[in-house]
Each structure stands twice: as C-alpha cells, then as structure tokens.
Amino acid sequence: MKITIGCDHAAFDEKEALKAYLIELGHEVDDVGPYSSDRVNYPDFAAKVAKAVAFQDEEKHRGVLLCGSGIGVSMVANRFAGVRAALVRTQEEAKLCREHNNSNVICFGARLLELEDIKSLTKTWLSTSFEGGRHSERVALFNELGER
Fold first, then answer.
1. pLDDT score for 132
2. Mind telling me the catalytic residues?
3. pLDDT of res. 17
4. What pLDDT was estimated at residue 31?
5. Nearest alpha-carbon partner for 15 in 69, 65, 63
6. Contact between residue 122 and residue 103 where contact means Cβ atoms under 8 Å apart
7. Where are the alpha helices (DSSP H) in 8-133?
8. What are φ and ψ of residue 5, in 5° steps?
9. Pairing with 69, which of 58, 93, 113, 121 sits 20 to 30 Å away (CA)?
C-alpha cells in the first residue's frame, strides 16, 4: 500500500520512526515533510496529505498525520472532500474508524501516545477492512462535504 505521511515539528521524531516501520512492513511511503524538527505550521502538511489521498482507493493509498495532539491535523484534513480523517488513541478506535467510516487518514498526537502505541494502532488500522453494508450510504455522504 502507498502511505502518504506528514507531521509538524512536535511529531517529527515519531514520523521518522513510523516511516521506517511502515517501510519495514513493506509499504511504499511518501513523506511530504517536514524534513527536520524546525518549527513549521501543521496545516501546510495536513493539507498535503489530505490532497494526496482524497478520492483514492483506500485499499491502495492512505495517509498518516501526526502533530502534538493530533487534533489540529485531523481538523485540517477533514476540510477536504474525499478525506475521512480519524483521530485515534485506542485499538477500538483504530478498528472502528476503518470498519464503520472507511477512514483514509489516521491522525495521532505524538505528545499523548508512546511510539510503540502509534505503531501498533497504525498496524491495526492498515489491516482492518471497511464493513460496507449499512455503513456505505453514510460514508458516501462524506464525498459531498468539504473543499476540493
């Protein structure tokens, strides 16, 4: 799977470690930055990830965003049509955002989670399939919302 990843300065180290982990798992990773821990504005990188994954096949291309809390990047990503970004902190959330919401972007707070938890949650999210069925109609409504 292709995974586009981005963060802000508060999550730079976690992004770098997660990127290496995803490559280890056999994924193609497109890192949209930043490329150092110098101060940056998270909306710039959240927008890059959102635009890269919007309206892509969720089984072939997804996005990962990190910032200090995960809140900011998730708010930005969800402004874009074709993006279903989920702020995740538990295994149950990692599963449900895929099973029920077909999320195509997962967001993490690097200041709130340990790196091993971020890796584990990402692995769960990547291996969980969308249930479809009764959820399909609701998820289809997402495509009518947001900026293009």
1. 92
2. 67, 100
3. 98
4. 98
5. 65
6. no
7. 12-24, 42-53, 71-77, 91-99, 115-127
8. -130, 145
9. 58
Class of domain 2-142: alpha beta
Domain ranges of the chain: 2-142
Helices and strands of the chain, counted as H and E runs: 6, 5
Instruction: Specify the pLDDT at position 145.
Output: 79
Distance between CA atoms of residues 25 and 130, nearest Å: 21
Query: In degrees to the nearest 10, what's the CA dihedral of 6, 73, 124, 13?
Result: 50
Residues 6+ apart with CB under 8 A from 87: 70, 71, 74, 107, 108, 109
Provide the token pair at 15. 């992004």
111-148 pLDDT, tens digit each: 999 999 999 999 999 999 999 999 999 888 877 777 66
Residue 43 CA: distances (Å) to CA of 60, 70, 100, 121? 24, 12, 26, 23
Model confidence pLDDT, tens digit, residues 60-88? 999 999 999 999 999 999 999 999 999 99
- Distance between CA atoms of residues 90 and 16, nearest Å: 21
